[in-house]
From TrEMBL:
Transmembrane segments: 20-45, 116-134, 146-167, 209-235, 256-280, 286-305, 312-330, 350-367, 388-409, 429-448
Membrane topology, from the record: Multi-pass membrane protein
Organism, as annotated: Phrynosoma platyrhinos (Desert horned lizard)
Organism phylogeny: Eukaryota, Metazoa, Chordata, Craniata, Vertebrata
Swiss-Prot/TrEMBL keywords: Membrane, Transmembrane, Transmembrane helix, Transport
Protein name per its UniProtKB record: Solute carrier family 6 member 8
């Protein structure tokens, strides 16, 4: 349809709220996700030193509890680090953690204590937005060329890091730990990403399935890189691998920085890792900003277009997101970041979105009609298995996992210690509901504004609005059933696109 995520739902105008919901989710993602890039950029800059700043104690940001070498394996002898007992050692802190919390985050006591802005991280955030702006301001033509490098170079770095990682002592134990499944984790709803990936597979054509497999395969391959390093760390510290395997931002900014301090030529490996992290994050940010801008530009009629319209729109979008992100570079910024991450684009909101998308496509617009549309685009009719997935399998799985997440909901806790205040939880649910409610509220609004009986309103609001050009796709009778080529025939008018079902 050559439209963004809002206008594409003209196939069923009553449910155009799905487009608004996706725009809200993408806006939230654009707002908080780039903070990972800012932190990565900060670490990359700090990597160009003879001694990594997170490798030693004695810096201005370190506390008296900072200890560089723990040596847990000596606890059997009663002492673990010089004159320290094992009980005393348990209260000490790693310089990597102190650099992350005291220097980068300058972590305050909670969401209610925002504190001052960290200007060093703010400058890194500005640099990231400048990179994003100049990569997407001209559209997908320029972005596509840049992605050739940003999407392929990380594979080179991953291969280099894997070769280095498997040569370290303890790497094999880490890889075994990675490959050995813990089936009890399936009983928790805290890992929705895998489910989201799996749910996307049955409902898209061949190329997209290949892309999803490459995506998941890259994650699987990256696991060998990460856990070979974690196995090395566990061997060096004499602890179980589960003790060093952080989750979330801690994996990139605590576990891996700690690992490179134990390697020879540590600054080189640190710079390679964070450069790779920056490129991977930029790819994702490009997609989010590009999708959001496309949806925004759909609101501007052609008659109101002006020169540099796209460039100005991208600049405004980046600026608005930046000012919101200023709350994340304060001393309480990590608590704000966690709220966005946990609620605004969580598995719950995405499953809700996916469920309604499948229902509208399969049952309102029509699965058979959608199959015809795909045939018009790619030249052949997809397998009927696709239709059954759209109609039954995918929405049922989405609904089941959604209800599972709701039933086993756990309030957000930061670092297993800080419990968010009630108003913080309310803000988080406000993020989630701001996208989820777009679907029913938009449908209700359109039904109220329409005229006629409820049946007439439903019929009118579920009829597709194709655009400005009237085209009929006609297929010779001998080819019906086996779509090969399609010939567009114009009737000379310019009102509504009509796609005639040929199957």
């Amino acid at each position: 349809m050559k439209a963004g995520s809002i206008n594409v739902w003209n196939i069923a105008p009553l449910f155009k709220g799905l487009g608004f919901a996706s725009m809200v989710i993408v806006f939230y993602c654009n707002t908080y996700y780039i903070m990972v890039l800012a932190w990565g950029f900060y670490y990359l800059v700090k990597s160009f030193t003879a001694t990594l700043p997170w490798a030693t104690c004695g810096n201005l940001w370190n506390s008296p509890e900072c200890v560089e070498i723990f040596r847990h394996e000596d606890c059997a002898n009663g002492t673990a680090n010089g004159n320290l007992t094992c009980d005393e050692l348990s209260d000490k802190r790693s310089p990597v953690i102190e650099f992350w919390e005291n220097k980068v985050l300058r972590l305050s006591g909670g969401l209610e204590f925002p504190g001052a802005i960290n200007w060093e991280v703010t400058l890194c955030l500005i640099a990231c937005w400048v990179l994003v702006y100049f990569c997407v301001w001209k559209g997908v033509k320029s972005t596509g060329k840049i992605v050739y490098f940003t999407a392929t170079f990380p594979y080179v770095v991953l291969i280099i890091l894997l070769i280095r990682g498997v040569m370290l002592p303890g790497a094999l134990d880490g890889i075994i730990y990675y490959l050995k499944p813990d089936w009890s984790k399936l009983a928790t709803p805290q890992s929705p990403d895998f489910a989201d990936t799996c749910l996307s597979l049955p409902s898209i054509p061949r190329d997209a399935i290949i892309l999803a497999l490459i995506n998941s395969g890259t994650s699987f391959f990256s696991g060998f890189v990460v856990f070979s390093i974690l196995g090395f760390m566990a061997a060096e510290q004499g602890v179980d691998i589960s003790k060093v395997a952080e989750s979330g931002p801690g994996l990139a900014f605590i576990a891996y920085p700690r690992a490179v301090t134990l390697m020879p030529i540590a600054p080189l490996w640190a710079a390679l890792f964070f450069f790779m992290l920056l490129l991977l994050g930029l790819d994702s940010q490009f997609v989010g900003v590009e999708g959001f801008i496309t949806g925004i530009l759909d609101f501007f009629p052609a008659s109101y277009a002006f020169r540099f319209q796209r460039e100005v729109t991208v600049a405004v979008c980046c600026t608005v997101c930046f000012f919101i992100e200023l709350s994340m570079v304060t001393e309480g910024g990590m608590y704000v970041f966690q709220l966005f991450d946990y609620y605004s684009a969580s598995g719950t909101t995405l499953l809700w979105q996916a469920f309604w998308e499948c229902v509208v496509i399969a049952w309102v617009y029509g699965a058979d009609r959608f199959m015809d549309d795909i045939a018009c685009m790619i030249g052949y009719r997809p397998s009927s298995w696709m239709k059954w997935c759209w109609m039954f399998l995918t929405p049922l799985i989405c609904l089941g996992i959604f209800l599972f997440n709701v039933a086993y909901y756990k309030p957000l806790i930061y670092n297993n210690s800080y419990i968010y205040p009630w108003w913080g939880e309310a803000i988080g649910w406000g993020f989630a509901l701001s996208s989820m409610l777009c679907v029913p509220l938009t449908a209700l609004y359109k039904l109220i504004r329409a005229k006629g009986t409820l049946t007439e309103r439903w019929h009118h609001l579920t009829q597709p609005i194709w655009g400005l050009h009237h085209l009929e796709y006609k297929v010779p009778e001998s080819d019906i059933g086996v779509l090969t080529t399609l010939t567009p025939v114009s009737d000379g008018s310019s009102k509504v696109v009509i796609l005639e079902s040929v199957m």
